[in-house]
Write a structure and sequence with these properties.
It is a single chain. This protein has helices spanning 2-15, 25-30, 68-76, 92-101, 133-147, 163-166, 169-180, 195-205, 222-234, 260-268, 283-292, 300-311, 335-346, 351-361, 384-391, and strands at 45-47, 54-56, 58-61, 81-83, 110-114, 152-157, 184-191, 210-214, 238-242, 275-278. It is of the alpha/beta class. The strands form 2 sheets. Strands 3-4-5-6-7-8-9-10 form an 8-stranded parallel β-barrel, surrounded by 5 helices. The structure holds iron/sulfur cluster (2 copies). One iron/sulfur cluster binds next to helix 13.
Length: 403
């Protein structure tokens, strides 16, 4: 009891949110008796490129889920495609998803997971000098064990961006071997930076069947991004979109929530996007999303709301991962990764993933406190120093208080 109170105290004080806003969602979700529901609705969907998989317009990013029953609820609500990653909850999320889908017909759902090779720099997306092919294969097989499955449908190489990295000989050898051994049906990439290059390389590779990319109304250079999407789709790459609400809120106080239906509909106007991978964390959110896909036509109000959000002078929470800040910092701090952590904490309220990402950023302690003035010109307009000092507090919070 004492620990529970302390955990909630840390969450509320860190995020400056009311306790009510952080009521444990799992309690409500656990109460949902998914097993009783037998008829699974068929939701509006599209085909995932050359995989031929017909999937609803909403898929589940399972990272924020903290209860297997919630995953099961999504399945019985018609969701078919579930994406996890080895780095969500240090593998525990894969276990949770496996538990949620256990006993259901294997061909009735599609599982994707992502794992970086050991030694990969997940901040820059660079591979180690010598990629250990056998170790990477073993890592992927261990992930299957956590799901309790013989195979996953889609195995993703994450943090993709550079063409040379995606086409690295050892990497492709490991990925193709996984496919050959029947451990995955399809291969894919996940990318939230340098996305256009990643999409083009995926299309040219003839190896990657699926691309999960960050795409939202704040996407820069929409014309060239849409061209890259069209190129990938034409080559048969099935594209799913993540980060579709661009942080969901305009600032850390969450005073001004984005019209999420408008943001998601905007993404789905592009027919080269097969489905949105939504990191849902509650039944309310699930139901809202499934209602939204019944009619993709944007209302005047939705267009207005999105336009207002677009014009808002507040820089918001979404970092474009353009990396233009890194060379401007005399210490070359890994600012883009720290800014993703900031968004996970204040936008998606996923403190566990925020901390994991912050640790990846590997910022030295008090990294900005000895620096008098931050002259960084951020593409998104963030006050970098302020945000780094703020999010750095999360680094030392014990993990058990964040779950
Ligand atoms: S310049 Fe700004 S938007 Fe670009 S990566 Fe850095 S923090 Fe993100
Ligand atoms: S305040 Fe921090 S981010 Fe800004 S220049 Fe100094 S060390 Fe870099």
């Amino acid at each position: 009891m004492k620990n529970t109170k302390r955990r909630e105290f840390i969450k509320t004080s860190f995020l400056s949110l009311s306790g009510a806003a952080l009521l444990p969602r799992s309690l409500k979700d656990a109460a949902y008796n998914a097993g009783k529901q037998t008829e699974i609705p068929v939701l509006p969907g599209r085909v995932l490129g050359r995989t031929g998989i017909k999937t609803p317009l909403i898929s589940m990013g399972t990272g924020p889920a903290n209860n297997p029953n919630f995953v099961k609820s999504a399945y019985f609500s018609g969701v078919k495609l579930f994406f996890s990653a080895t780095y969500y909850g240090e593998g525990n999320n894969e276990k949770l998803v496996g538990e949620g889908l256990a006993g259901l017909p294997r061909d009735s759902y599609v599982i994707g997971t992502a794992a970086p090779p050991d030694g990969m720099d997940t901040r820059t997306g660079n591979l180690p000098a010598q990629l250990d092919v056998d170790a990477y294969i073993k890592k992927a097989e261990t992930s299957l064990g956590r799901f309790g499955l013989d195979y996953v449908d889609i195995f993703l190489f994450p943090y993709a961006g550079e063409r040379d990295v995606m086409l690295n000989e050892s990497l492709l050898k490991a990925l193709l071997e996984l496919k050959k051994r029947g451990k995955t049906k399809y291969l894919g990439i996940a990318s939230h930076g340098n996305i256009e290059e990643a999409l083009t390389a995926a299309a040219d590779s003839k190896v990657y069947d699926v691309a999960m990319i960050a795409y939202n109304y704040k996407t820069e250079n929409k014309k060239s991004m849409n061209d890259a999407l069209a190129y990938a789709a034409k080559a048969g790459v099935g594209v799913v979109a993540m980060k579709t609400t661009a942080g969901a809120f305009n600032n850390k106080n969450q005073a001004n929530p984005l019209n999420s239906d408008a943001a998601l509909k905007w993404v789905l106007q592009n027919e080269n996007i097969t489905s949105i991978v939504s990191g849902m964390s509650s039944l309310e959110e699930l139901k809202k999303n499934l209602e939204m896909i019944k009619n993709l036509k944007m209302t005047d109000q939705e267009l207005k709301d999105l336009n207002l959000a677009w014009q808002d002078s507040d820089p918001g929470l979404y970092c474009h991962q353009c990396r233009k800040c890194v060379t401007q910092c005399p210490y070359n701090l890994e600012i883009p990764t720290a800014m993703r952590s900031y968004m996970y904490a204040y936008g998606y309220r996923n403190l566990e993933h925020a901390q994991h990402t912050l640790i990846e950023a590997d910022l030295p302690d008090n990294s900005c406190s000895n620096c008098d003035k931050c002259k960084i010109k951020c593409t998104a307009g963030f006050n970098i120093k302020e945000r780094i000092e703020d999010i750095s507090r999360l680094k030392k919070v014990p993990q058990e208080f964040l779950v």
